[in-house]
Amino acid sequence: MRKRVCYIHIGPHKTGTSSIQWFLQENRAELLRYGYFVPETATKHGAHHPIVHKLCGQELPDHQESVAAKFTRALDETPSEAVIVSSESLAGLLRNREYAKTFFTRVRELNLEPKLIVFPRNQSQRINSSYSSAVKAFRLSEPFETFVQGVTQGFVFRYAPLIELADAHGAELIARPFTSETIGRGVVPEFLRAIGIHSSQFRNAKVRRNEAAGPFTVSLARGVLRSIGRTGNRLKWLQAIRCKAELANYLEENGLADAGYCGLTTALARQIEREFRPDNDAFAQRVWGRPWGEIFAADIRQEFIPNDFEMYRPDESTERRLERAIREMTAIVEEILLDPALAVEAPWNDLLARAGRTPRAQIQES
Fold this sequence. Notes:
Shape: globular
Number of strands: 5
Distance between the termini: 40 Å
Number of domains: 2
Strand order of the largest sheet: 2-3-1-4-5
Radius of gyration: 21 Å
Number of helices: 18
Helix content: 40-55%
Structural class: alpha/beta
């Protein structure tokens, strides 16, 4: 098997990953014409989560277990000189030393030369987006400020460890800043440039997906998760997926869907940026040869007005709607918890294990 480049897009979360994955899925045939092979995926929006979880050595549900074997066969059959794999799950998985070692060993066994593509984002904006996304996905219910305190002390939102990861495994690190300008232009053209293609060769390169949830959505999901949490229930992966889908349906059917959540104050944003400044400057100087503040100037000057209902109480009418919605959604979630097919006891169905947070692993995060 001949050696070929494998562009491994690792995210992180909230940096246009859904847009990139949707584009790759919709343009597989066209990309193949230019010599880039994009594996088929079992996921709805084009992410290669099953492939990367398997390459990291994790167990998969029965219907996904064959995905790595199919990937290997497809590599044998494609004449392409380059392969593209995209999964933001790797941003967390590869911080686990055991998973990282297994992943890069298996990638090289496939005779692939790994090139990691990452889109660093200023932490204030990324933390804000990550919080609303995680709450909407029924993964956490803590207040925003508690979440901020936790993540600023850990490694998940730090980028310098990615340099160490790439160096340790002999992989090239291709970093492109995800700024407010990137959002305006679209992240897909920037991704295509990173792999050596000009976006003018595609008609649908400007894609934007997954608008951030709003304060009502965050308060609803957070309230439901806290309600069921009082009984000691911790959601499984399949349960969380179903809950997220039912939440979206409920909001749509009742005309309650909103967008634009903000838990940040300007003062808190500046505090976050000070906390990450040494790490950010070390990363930016190494990969771009410029200070972080120069590259993300517009982002670190941004001011914020929070709309989180726990920080600023909504009007009485909104409060009544929220209370009713929490009651109704809690009943829906309780029904989901009764479905044995979603409560399978297996590593692949554990939210923490899927993210790489296992008791036996050496993990570089809080």
